[in-house]
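Quick illustration, no need to memorize.
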Amino acid sequence: MTGISKSFAGVAALTDVSLEVLPGEVHALLGENGAGKSTLMNIATGTLRPDAGAMTVRGEPADDLNPREAARRGIAIVHQHPAVLPDMTVLENLLVALPSTVFPKGVSVEDTASALLARVGLRVHLRDRVEQLSVAQKHLLEIAKALAVDPALLVLDEPTAPLGQESVDLLFALVRRAVADGTSVVYITHRLAEVRELADRVTVLRDGKLRATAVVSEISDHDLLALIVGRQLDSTFPPKHVAGADEQPNLVISGLTGRGFTNVSVQARPGEIVGVSGVVGNGQSDLLRALAGLEPFEGTATVGVSSLSSKELLARAAYLPADRHSEGLMMRLSVRENAAVSALRRFKQRVLMNRKRELAMVGDTLGSLSVKAASMDAAVSSLSGGNQQKVMVARALLSEPILVLADEPTQGVDVGARAEIYGILREVSASGVPVIIASSDAKELEGLCDTVIVMSRGHVVDTLRGDAITEERMIHAAVSSTTRTVSTDDVREQDRPPTARALGFRRFMQGDYAPAVLLVAVMVGLGAYIFSTNDRYLGDFNIQSMLLLVSALGFIALGQTIALLTGGIDLSVGPLAGLLVVVASFFIVEESAATSLVLGFLAMLAVSIAVGLINGSLIRFGRFTAIAATLTTYIAVQGVSFLLRDSPGGYISGDVSRLITTKLGPIPAAFIVLVAVTIGLEFALRKSRWGWNLRAAGSDEESARRVGVNINRTVVLGYVATSVLTFGGAIMLMAQLGIGDPSQGVTYTLSSITAVVLGGTSLLGGRGTFVGTILGALLLVQVLNATVFLGLDQMWQYILQGTLILAAAILYSLARSRRARRTKKA
């Protein structure tokens, strides 16, 4: 890489940076958070385009890289924030990210995927959703994807930050093996010990500029630190507290028991910091979550002189979670909003917020932490990982907590910022606020904490104070205790490992098809009740009538499903269906020639494709939100309908209508076609790259882009498919109406959305089924039909539909929020 420069919104992230990586070497890349390391590697792997500079790979120019092209050239990256798709399964994440050549013919996809996971020591089920994995497991999945392509150049961006020691040792072994096979590795880290252990050469960036490149064996840690921070660091850790003989504890935890930990007791005096150590996944995070009021517990937690309940802790404790992206920050809000959200009462002036006070207090706190951001109103997602961590610390300080709980507080943070965070935590403790830190870095706990408890399998196996707090003592206590068998008396019924059958049932209930099963049960129950009151309910005429109505709604709802899977919505499908019927009323009329009929259907198809292209283009290239874009199209399409026909007219050919409504026994042929289309779409959604890309775009757009999904093309073509399926619904609607009526079709917008939501497709995108959508359409038509058979007035249609939607939304949210309560071992 030669002379690479890159700016964001006028702010330089990289300025004239050059980097050379030799075959078969580990090249460490160091720098503070925001120095430009990740930006440089995102350019190297095709995720970003440089503003200036040139790149060559194996001597060949590589100036137009994208993620797919980078993968083809043998470049792979493990991102600091894993490029995983939370709504998709572990297997689907592998399939969407990896080229088909990784999965050889003659070997099942599942066997190949299992081998890839076993290679990195990741023990999870292939059908588990990625959102249910721990942070460490997501990183291991990312590493498995990178190693699967046997890369010529492997970029590792803070790969060990969330990993336990066992996983770190395995990763280092994999890196050494890859290097021995000729792979070059760029290793981004904040841990100098890892540089010494792995790297051959090191490059340091500061403020987006190249500071030095050196052979690791020829440069000292002291000189590296000076290059990284631009100043000398006297000490990483602040002085520890010296307790007086008569000081009373301000924190007493006694017999605390909760999900994932048992009988934890510890105390601390003012000015002391408590550390929680142990192999990752042994109850440390569970303990902190309970003390934050996020999980119930038994026992007592006394701060000062008050014993606090979970509710009180939730309101008054400050919690910094290890996973800052999913739990710590609201990524769509600004830096200021994220920092201020827990301290709004401090900015209140009578009944309103005092913005001047908010800006001053938030600005002072962010400034004291040296947060690097374009402005306080910049999106927090635009910050580097370390600066995002500082924003969480700022929020904790602003909330004036009575207890501070930090889970991996310096994960992904550079040495300079780490020292600042240590100093802040020490100052908070010195002010009389108890501080508890859980960390997988024993050196960190040794240098910072006054008391350390070591946990194994949810139990405290050692408590260290003063000079006894050493890395060796902590590791020995944790490792030597892992062979202990926890008595069944210590394990509550709720903590017993679930059986394979229970795990399978849980996996199904959290899957996409659970809502479909629920809909079938509701339809069977409702049908049985109606039939018990009127035996004509299952007559041929009624079945035919319902299925014809379902055929029109079903096609439109299938199209709506595609829009929702991308994370969008299409409000224009109803008016579009009406417009297509109006267009048909000019061509497909009585005594029309065959040429006219063909032109009519082609005109309907062309209009639907045009509307889909307009919707997709407005969203992806015009930067409209999906609602704004499709609402604009809704109004325009409806207006065109009335321009073409200001009143009903143009009778549809009876022969065409009879052909469309042909029946095979009591079943309309159109419904059979609908079922066939649904099965085909469902298969494509689960088994084809089109389906994986569609769900990937809706699950996490940035991660999808990083794994090589062309988001613009996927979304635009998705909206075209939505409109084409609406064309199928319009054909059915045309046969039912028999006339071009510009006022018809509008109601199908809300009906289609209702059917999709009932079928379990998420309004947030990324997950859903076409089968569920058709069942949702069936249930809607059944409810409409039920009001007739039960003699209810029209009001009951809306009451029943509203009740169904509310029930579906509640049940779906509950099913989606069910997670494994324990943190899984990496």
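The chain has three domains: 2-229, 251-481, 546-772.
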